[in-house]
Fold these 4 entries.
Entry 1:
Amino acid sequence: MSMRIDACFENARKSGKTVLIPFVTAGDPLPALTVAVMHRLVEGGADLIELGIPFSDPMADGPVIQASSERAIERGVDLEQVLSWVRQFRDNDAVTPIVLMGYMNPIERFGVSRFSQAAHASGVDGLLMVDCPPEEMTELQDSLSARDIDIIRLVAPTTSETRCRMITRHAKGFVYYVSFKGTTGAGSLDTKALARPIAALKKLTSVPVVVGFGIKDSRSARAVAEYADGVVIGSALVDRLASAGTDQQVLDAALEFLAAIRSALDQGVR
């Protein structure tokens, strides 16, 4: 169990805040800026950071995040580099939880045991695996749990109630609800339709429920916050960073983009 993730959501609950979780791809738009961007996101109001591990076939991701992975891979970014950036981030931030998001292939190539040890040593708090169902996660889960790293469970609109019960039974950290069928950055989010599935999830688990996919701006983030304990914003942020110009403009964009979302969420403090 990650103490940082639990503390993050507990502090938010006590203050009536919605946890804000930005997603960025490690190494994009430039490897040398990754750690600085992470710090700027915290300055902008991030409560937890989801850091994407670049992968050549990110099947759950839409074109914006796919392109960011391609750019990072072209610049030589690999899992070892990602872990080193988390370690550098921890030099100046021992509080903000870091959840890695990725696919099994890079971890299997790295080695499950070696990855778990290195992730713990670097200061990783959680891992969200898109392509590894619970039935195939035993070795990885046991290895990470022994080092207090949470496996973040995913639930989709197509997940049956029986499977939701099975998934939430082992949930730690938080449950990630995928807001609609499709890839990241695609589709139109119907926030009102989230009320029923999120309420159903909260009856099955005591861990927080966050929503990702389709949250593009302050308006959609605030609408989702009516139902969820946390919101994840990824493609819109990744696109904004990619379109920034100089290094300083990238850092400014990270801060300004997230600060606007944070302000919108805080205006709706529960």
Entry 2:
Amino acid sequence: MAALLDTLRVLASFQPPKVDLSSAPWDEYVDWAIAHGLGPLAAYNLEYRLGGAGAPQWAKDRLLSVYQGTANDNVMKLVGLKRTLGELAGRRIVVFDGASFAEALYPHVAFRPLPEIRLLVRREDLDGLTGFLASRGFHQSPHPDPAGAAMALADGRTEMCLHAGILGDSLAAEEAELLSRCLPLRAFGPSLFRLDLEDATLALCLHQARVGYQLPTLSFVDLRELLLGAPSLGGDYSRPPDFPLLLHRAKQWGLERALCCSVSIAARLFPEIAEAASRASPQLRPSTRSLLERLVVRPASTLGGTRAIRGGDRLRRLLTARRPRVPSR
């Protein structure tokens, strides 16, 4: 596990150190990295930053093929998004998760695979957007979305997952505020937006908790860059997070335990975010923090094999349970 973790830290870095990786566990790492969405970034680092770093040729070739395929696939999906929705005006459609992160957090769009494109709209706008996409050749997917989208549509090339809110009916006012402060995504059209930095961070932590942390490690690279303020770029997320505001909204949304787990896992994987993770970590009772550390953080930050968390459904309820309402800021 230690060797796999060391390899992850080098090859998932945007500024990898010059090291010799000839003794890295390549037989284990390559399959694992590809499955966890880390293959394209690892390929770029090996090919263009580290001069191979002692990796065997078969490993470099396989990772490079994933990089090239991801680059083509991502460009196709993002260009398709612009062509499909770019002419809509007077709407508020929020691009979130991977499709927003690939452009706002990663130095190259090929580094962040996009299995699907996730869009957030008001519940009353869901049917209208579904009908519009149907007129553009998108049909309902027969497979339910594991992340809880209200509707999953596909045109044979791109899957679009439509979310009618992410916070739940009990937080309708907070959901409306979240939508009102979204940032324009002008490159994709006048009706497309992205979540602001603090909201994007909490939405990611909420998603991680809702799936019981059974998700690709790439998700924690996303969180790493959000907590650092996307220092490799100069876009919407390239600023230090407002940590007091982040903590306030986590309490307001009932996500303090989810935020604690997510930032703790990210800090275990990537020690360079220790300071930011400490500032983003809510104040919980020591007994609660100890329980979360034992039942969630340690299993979820263990690499390789199957990261099963016992009592997943019960823990998901624990991590996203609502607390008494907190005034907005």
Entry 3:
Amino acid sequence: MQVLSVGLAHADETVATSAPELVPSGISDIYSDVDMRVRLAIKANAASCVAESCNFNQAFDARVQQLGVQLSASAYTVYPTIKKRVPQFTFSVVDKKDAGTASNGAGKVVLFRGLQQLELSDEALSFVMAREMGHVIGKHHVTNTAAKLIISALATALFPAAAILSASSTVAQASTTTTLFTSAASTATSMVGSELALARMKPIQLAESDAIALNLMQYQSWDLRSAASVLQFDDDLDATSHQNGWLQDLQISGVQLQRMVIDEELAILSLEDDYLITKKTVSITVEGPH
């Protein structure tokens, strides 16, 4: 198998792991884990396996574990400073119907059972797993937790009546409707503000996680051309992706990967042409004009 090494910038720890920690990592680990569990809870469950499908599930789970071991080793080699913050990456598959992934700040990476339906190659599945690891390595959970906590504090400041009323049981009992309204307004402001903030940061974080994933793939010398080709989905999946934001993000990553592969192939061809031209020029110079 011919391996294509895409010409990415080498992994730079100052880019991937030096984001300022506005909140302690321990707090972001707990907060991100709760957030991940809540998001998983609202996802539709996959149908229970029967007979042969159970064997299919077990085989997929085994692949995930095997690839996870390889990716973890690469992560600690390419980004050695994360070992202190994330002593271990863990990988598991949850029985959720749609394709997707999730993670928390402590290094727990979760794949949805729906990924099996994509029939990804080892290269493509490794890229998907490495993308999610990229969020952990890039400290995106820390950043997101800080954003949510800051916006929550601002929402409380915008609606101080909730705190004032709750401080007096007498007033609170006499103003139940006002208290509930103020509390609801504060909560709504916090939630909407958090989602808007995360939406603004999302494109940057996705690009960073893609770059980290590609660095991990490069270190393992995976065939990125193969991964890129597998991630070019057909029309049926294109239609499905409109209801699945995660699939839309993966398609964007696949397109970017495909472009990088093409650019690298063109660069290689250009170098080959330059070499042939140089070789021919030297030959003519040595032989002299006829």
Entry 4:
Amino acid sequence: MKCGFPVFYSPRFADHNTGAMHPENAGRLTAVVEYLKGCQKKYEDVGSQELSWAGKIVWVEPSVRDVLEDVCRVHDSDYIESLKTFAQKGGGFLDADTVMSSQSYALALLAVAAWLQAADWVSAQGSQAFALVRPPGHHAERSRGMGFCLLSNAAIAAHYALAKLGAQRVAILDWDVHHGNGTQSLVEGNPNIAYCSFHQADAYPGTGGANETGDHRNVLNLPMAAGAGRVDYQQRWQAEAAPFLRGFGADFMIVSAGYDATQSDPLAGLCLQPDDYGWLTQMCLQLTPKILFGLEGGYDYRALAESVAATIRCAVQGA
């Protein structure tokens, strides 16, 4: 792979068919890819220094690999088999929010493969990578898919980094507007993984209270009041998140990069702007250069695309 900022993405992710009216649909990735490639083309055509970050993006098709061993570190094998069988029968609704099609099981495994290939890159290169995938993962529990999620990509990647990549301590920062109940439940028992979540208080799935601190004091939940914006995030980052993460001393960081805390997102009520994710990225880079970003939520197409771009721009410029 040539040098640059790798984005692990496959057009096949569009085949996880949830229906055009479902908020977690293929248009989300299409919007991001078109925006990023548009920035790349403008840079190639004009050579604007402002878009030089886009010239660093390298698109990587995830390699097909056997990830079942890695998946089964966190998920029950019976649950995995049930997803496979459900997809083979054509799919349908796992619950009121979570949809599978005939290709969803295979694509959930491909999404895991993309996260793990990105983790390989981060470990080997000592720099950042982005897994631009669907379905998302941070709500998926050990034996249950929910909240649009089938497999817990971030938790799988965290355990993989410890087991296969030589990481000693892994920190997960979840900045999705919804609490990552699945991720927390699948990592809080491991003292070598820390989980920190910014999320809207009292939003779906109703978990993530400040009193949830993990089995080893390795969980920090930061519920944000509706209407909170960058100033509120900055205050809590400086006072709580940064000391927690710095004190944990991770040598590998995973960001559950949901972008539904933007003011224009239809599923929540926080007020971040796309450029605020650039600031969050800069804060993460002050902790470690080894960061794996993986897509979670974000349902306003334009805000999602601009927010992903802000993350990549600041990662490239901060490298």
